[in-house]
Amino acid sequence: MKIAMIGTGYVGLVSGTCFAEWGNRVVCVDKNAEKIEQLKQGKLPIYEPGLDKLVERNQIAERLSFTTDLTSAVKGADLIFIAVGTPPRLGSGDADLSFVYMAAQEIAESLEGHPTVVVKSTVPVGTGDVVEKIIAAVRPRGSFSVASNPEFLREGSAIDDFLFPDRVVVGVEGPRALEALTALYSPLARANTPVVVTQRRAAELIKYAANAFLATKITFINELADLCEQVGTDIDDLALGIGLDHRIGQSFLKAGPGYGGSCFPKDTLALLRTAQDYGIALRVVEETVAANEARKRKMALKVIDAVGGDVEGLTIAVLGLTFKPDTDDMRDAPSIPLIETLQRFGAKIRAHDPVGMKNAARVLENVMLLDDPYECVRDADAAVVVTEWESVRQLDLDLMRQLMRSPILVDLRNVFGRGAAQAGFQVSSVGRPA
Ligand code: UGA
């Protein structure tokens, strides 16, 4: 099939490349000429394990190409995906759909044949209806369909999530779009991946509901972790004990400093806005958002407690800055409020991240960023693990202990087990007795 992918951000680039991997001819479009030029040379704007090789392979096979020219990409395409950003509007938290609508307008102006326009960006309920109206206003007699096909990719494991998903969700209003999307996803159907075929509005809502549910699950285990600390028991045992019940499930029960990233914080807020518009109170989601925000700042108090109640003038080494491992993404990373709060209380911050330093330098102020984790902890009064990078797990605790001024370790991801105490550290973890 011939596919145009509008937007070469995270979703567009991963989806476009994987569609090409299945043998489709994919043209990825972006307004940013510099980005397109870089992509043509095989330089990716994001860090995602394995993506560079997949892009290269499909470029060489001439199944994947990049352009700024939307008109030529859309010409003759069977499927036109909209995968542009839907950032939160400042203040209100609702999704800014201007890029989606702009893409719809440009698609309409270039439309020919009988394509299916598929919204892949995460968009509030009813956006597909507006996209359809925008295109119909320009092409009243045009022959096209509009579908919703949300993505469920996680940064860091996006390619596997795309090629081996738990399910595919397809929201359609007619047979033509269903036929096109069924053909597109036939490699997955052959592998017995469930395909949920539903209305367009349902597909749009499924995406938000899934993210809000996962955010709630994390928040639940985080709150239970606080209780475990008080009653002197271990959150990982509790998570295992409940998670083995298949109705609960073991994933997303890892306690930590609170969820971050480009999706959960944005999507929970956008879902709340939609509910508000319809006069519905989603109290569980409201509480999740509030509890997670409070938690991220509370983690700074945990550090302050660990050093004896005052960080004024102390040097704190932060290990891991990105919102999770295997990404360079700093959006809504728990490390940001943690560092800002510690700085307000007078701490000096040194920090290390194996991949996210460039983005960290853009969002963090007055932080000494160090490429070497051991240099980062040198002479520190405490070390704080914020992101569970494998390279952080592998650190030599004895060496760290020797380099640091005080042997205080605040492990917000529970990456270090008993070994840390054995190495002489005074350890403070999440959901474990001190
Ligand atoms: C999330 C969803 O998992 C994807 O299914 C979805 O497609 C994506 O958002 C999106 O909407 O685009 P992502 O934000 O990449 O993916 O990362 P997750 O692995 O979900 O982690 C989100 C946050 O939750 C991270 O800060 C992570 O550290 C935290 N988390 C996750 C926990 O604290 N505990 C867990 O058990 C799991």
From TrEMBL:
**Which keywords does this Swiss-Prot/TrEMBL entry list?**
NAD, Oxidoreductase
An example Gene Ontology molecular-function term: UDP-glucose 6-dehydrogenase activity
Q: Which reaction does it catalyse?
A: UDP-alpha-D-glucose + 2 NAD(+) + H2O = UDP-alpha-D-glucuronate + 2 NADH + 3 H(+)
Give the residues annotated as active site: C263 (nucleophile)
One of its GO biological process terms is: UDP-glucuronate biosynthetic process
Binding residues for substrate: F152, L153, R154, E155, K207, F252, L253, K254, A255, G256, G260, K324
**Top EC group:** oxidoreductase
Q: In which pathway does it act?
A: Nucleotide-sugar biosynthesis; UDP-alpha-D-glucuronate biosynthesis; UDP-alpha-D-glucuronate from UDP-alpha-D-glucose: step 1/1
Residues reported to bind NAD(+):
D30, K35, T86, T122, E155, K266, R331
Which residue ranges does the record assign to the UDP-glucose/GDP-mannose dehydrogenase C-terminal domain?
Answer: 317-418
Report the superkingdom from the record.
Bacteria
Record flagged with keyword Oxidoreductase: yes
Which EC numbers characterise this protein's activity in its record? 1.1.1.22
Q: What Pfam families does UniProt report for this protein, alphabetically? A: UDPG_MGDP_dh, UDPG_MGDP_dh_C, UDPG_MGDP_dh_N
Family named by the database record: Belongs to the UDP-glucose/GDP-mannose dehydrogenase family.
**What is the protein's given name?**
UDP-glucose 6-dehydrogenase
Q: Which organism is it from?
A: Mesorhizobium alhagi CCNWXJ12-2
